Amino acid sequence: MTAPGLTRRAAVALACALALAGCGAVQGVRSRLPPRQPRPGPEASAYKGLRDAASRSARLYDGLVHRASLSGTWLSPPVRQAGTRQLGEWLSWTPAELEAALAAGDADAARGEEFVLALYTADPAHNDLDARPSTWRAELDDGTDQAAATEVAFEESNPATMQLFNYVGKFDKVWRVRVPWTGAPLEGRPFVLRLSSALGSMVLDFGPGGRKAERPHQSP
Fold first, then answer.
1. Which of 74, 143, 197, 209, by CA, is between 20 and 30 Å from 95?
2. Residue 203: CB partners within 8 Å, gap ≥ 6?
3. 3-state class of 139 per DSSP?
């Protein structure tokens, strides 16, 4: 149900902002959007710097056998807001739609720390973060407090996703992972997001020595 005073177009904008890049899944959006691919705009350089600083990668090997790759972005408030502004520029939102989307994003952020993850597994059956039970356990750890993810959602890859998160490759699945964090604020401090399984573990280290996110791999 659309909130009072909120137009259908603004409701679509809110839905897109909450998914950052999932607009293609919203009914009726395709016909209302300009028929063009996302391309760099005025917000691109600012967003790129924030995204890159908040993105990390990890790989999992069994000897010389590549089992899995993981890249991800911490959706801190600055990253979330810059991403929403970039999406709004691509999709030609009105100022009112943008402000509504930013407010909705801020409200959503209050529910916990959120990450966008691009996961590749050599065995597709292991790329199952939303399964119950999943092959993987996602945990946020700052060295003092730990908390496991409680919400995982699969995201369809589309041109906006692959522009906003440029490490997403054609062999990856994209996931949004939320952790209800009650520890100290993470901004300005080192922390890790860990994916653990019987296959091994991958750690996204968001400290200064963490491995920066890489461009997508082109083969399994």
1. 74
2. 58, 192, 193, 194, 195
3. strand
